[in-house]
Design goal:
heterodimer, A: 356 residues, alpha+beta, B: mainly alpha, 0% strand
């Protein structure tokens, strides 16, 4: 089932949680709502579910206005951040709940319910825990029970609120892959909320980057990561260095150094000429000698060689802290030591410049 | 070094010296004995002073039976009403933000902060035959003050915070996520209420019910004012005990008292049992949070 959001706004008192959002989600898509806490992503998800009523705008399911459709009739599955399992029921009863509350005429008989529950518990690989209570399960197991419970009612749309937020890193990775596979199998239109860019990039077909109640960019992982539409998106998706500089006659100045960038979309503040440059740590290169106008001097402060890349922290000539990631071969070839004076060179010409 | 360790037994730095501990425990036990154990034993001793036959005769007395019946009837009306009110009020307070929420919380506590005698007087002033409302009711043949309805009303008034007070924090701690989950899964309002909301607060609910019942049966002040002390008609058990006592029928007074004492003991046992169930339920929540964080 496709979902269409038209001009959705929602405020809580003076706080604008969602500000005039338009979004179309195709049938069978897996979409991530990505943003910081307070960006309105959870509110938007709850509006889709019908748990919140928007102040303005409408939600369309399969082209039909769902505003008048109550939560229980929307055929949405909602997985809560803290799972919201019924603590006084066994795993079996939790999963069976959605089937047991069906009006008697349409309700499957006890044998059919048992069959369906065990089928779902097998799908989430937890059939052996059917008689346990939620308090006896680990976080990852609870999350999977919550999913099985949601799938029991055969929702047309699956909504997940920070589905892996409360789990530790290892379990999170595992569940992420598992959810991806599950989605490939059952092809249910799914929307999940996350503040973890890695999760969004890895899992979603499309990512909706949200900030302060509105959408900054919608696109595939490739698009939002490599072609961010603005500084916020660039800043949010991965580590960045911020350089405060200015632009004069199309040339970028950092401190007193002019860095020549063939930057076509550099635009500075019209009056002050001030600009902020965003550069990812792995897009800077450390060289020992200046190389024309494209390098600027810096001093090595500290080095962290643990991990797949060596993280080097430097101080630029004009005082900004700079983080650079280089590979181990390069690190060994350079013989870097704290205190060494080196030069930095952007690997790419299209750095992100943003006026302030 | 060894001698040092001998002289200083393994006592944590925060523990008090043995003398202090013994003194404190002795004081506590003496206090309990003086104010609780001896009186309770005295009640039963006095009740049985004239023999077991007299004890049962005192309880079987028609006036005593009428008092017991009235007390049970009052509790049977007041307790379900107040439990219903408690669920409604705690749900409204825990789930919704509405203007006047704080005021409602304060109002619920009024019966606790007002002397029961004054509560009783309020009903006399409001519903007595000289008051407009009481006069109106009397003209239509409904007698409230100095009759059973007044006793029931006064009991409801003094006991109504008990269930609500117990349920509000539990409802707030449980939160509304499970209820939302139930609705999203297709449950109707009543299905959600009986399958999710009530089971989640059931021990707190029972605890409130036990407290409410104990107070409803034992209430003296408010009921005394509105009762009129008509023997065999408007005497509850506590009022009947007082009358017997004032008539110098000590054995009979203590026999009826012993029933109230047994109720108190049963309540304490139930309370102890339920407290254990209520606290682990809250504990479970904390454990969950810890595990999730770990």
């Amino acid at each position: 089932m496709s979902i269409e959001l038209r001009n959705i706004s929602k405020r809580f008192g003076d706080f604008v949680a969602v500000d005039n959002i338009n979004l179309h989600i195709e049938t069978g898509e897996l979409v991530a709502l990505l943003g910081l806490s307070g960006s309105g992503k959870t509110t938007l998800l709850r509006i889709i579910a019908g748990l919140e009523t928007p102040d303005t705008g409408e939600v369309l399911f399969h082209g039909e206005d769902a505003s008048a459709v109550s939560v229980r009739d929307r055929k949405v599955g909602f997985v809560f951040q803290h799972y919201a399992l019924f603590r006084h029921m066994t795993v079996f009863e939790n999963v069976a709940f959605g089937l047991r509350v069906i009006p008697r005429r349409a309700r499957p008989d006890e044998a059919a319910i048992a069959r369906r529950v065990h089928e779902l518990l097998k799908l989430v690989q937890l059939d052996f825990l059917a008689d346990r209570y939620p308090s006896q399960l680990s976080g990852g197991q609870r999350q999977r029970v919550a999913l099985a419970r949601t799938l029991a009612v055969e929702p047309k749309v699956l909504l997940l609120d920070e589905p892996f937020g409360a789990l530790d890193a290892k379990v999170r990775q595992e569940l992420r892959r598992w959810l991806r596979r599950l989605h490939d199998e059952i092809k249910i239109t799914s929307v999940f909320v996350t503040h973890d860019q890695e999760e969004a990039l890895e899992l979603a077909n499309r990512i909706v980057v949200m900030n302060q109640g509105h959408i900054e960019q919608i696109g595939s992982a490739e698009e939002v990561y490599h072609h961010p539409s603005n500084a916020f998106v660039y800043n949010f998706l991965g580590n960045v260095n911020l350089f405060h500089g200015r632009i004069e006659n199309g040339r970028v100045f950092l401190g007193d150094t002019a860095v020549e960038l063939e930057n076509t979309h550099a635009h500075a503040h019209p009056q002050t000429g001030k600009a902020v440059l965003y550069v990812r740590p792995h897009l800077l290169e450390i060289v020992m000698k200046p190389n024309g106008k494209q390098t600027f001097p810096a001093t090595v402060k500290s080095i962290n060689p643990a991990g797949p890349q060596v993280k080097v922290e430097l101080v630029a000539e004009w005082g900004d802290m700079v983080q650079v990631e280089i590979d181990h071969e390069r690190y060994q070839a350079l013989h870097l030591e704290p205190g060494a004076n080196v030069f930095l060179r952007p690997k790419e010409q299209k750095l992100f410049v943003y006026s302030i | 070094m060894g001698g040092q360790a001998q002289r200083e037994p393994k006592r944590p730095g925060t523990a008090d010296p043995p003398m202090v501990r013994i003194a404190l425990i002795t004081i506590a036990l003496l206090f309990l004995a003086l104010f609780l154990f001896i009186p309770v034993i005295a009640v039963f001793a006095e009740a049985l002073a004239k023999g077991i036959g007299a004890y049962f005769a005192a309880i079987a007395d028609p006036e005593a039976r009428a008092a017991i019946r009235l007390t049970l009837m009052t509790a049977a009306i007041a307790v379900p009403l107040n439990v219903t009110f408690g669920i409604a009020a705690s749900w409204a307070i825990a789930r919704f933000d509405f203007p006047g929420k704080q005021t409602l919380l304060t109002l619920i506590d009024i019966p606790f902060s007002v002397s029961p005698v004054i509560s009783g007087m309020l009903f006399v002033l409001l519903l007595g035959v000289r008051a407009p409302l009481g006069g109106f009711l009397a003209a239509h043949g409904i007698k409230v003050i100095f009759a059973e309805p007044g006793i029931v009303l006064a009991t409801i008034f003094v006991t109504f915070p008990l269930a609500a007070r117990e349920l509000i924090p539990i409802m707030q701690a449980v939160g509304s996520e499970e209820e939302e989950a139930a609705i999203v899964l297709g449950a109707g309002g009543w299905q959600m209420f009986f399958r999710v909301t009530i089971p989640n607060v059931k021990w707190g609910l029972l605890y409130g019910l036990v407290l409410c019942n104990a107070r409803a049966m034992g209430e003296f002040g408010a009921v005394s004012v509105v009762s009129g002390h008509i023997r065999g008609h408007t005497n509850t058990m506590p009022l009947y005990v007082e009358i017997l006592y004032n008539d110098y029928q000590f054995a009979a007074a203590f026999a009826v008292s012993s029933l109230l004492t047994l109720l108190a003991i049963a309540t304490l046992v139930a309370k102890r049992f339920l407290e254990r169930r209520v606290v682990p339920a809250k504990q479970e929540q904390d454990d969950l949070a810890v595990k999730v964080a770990a």
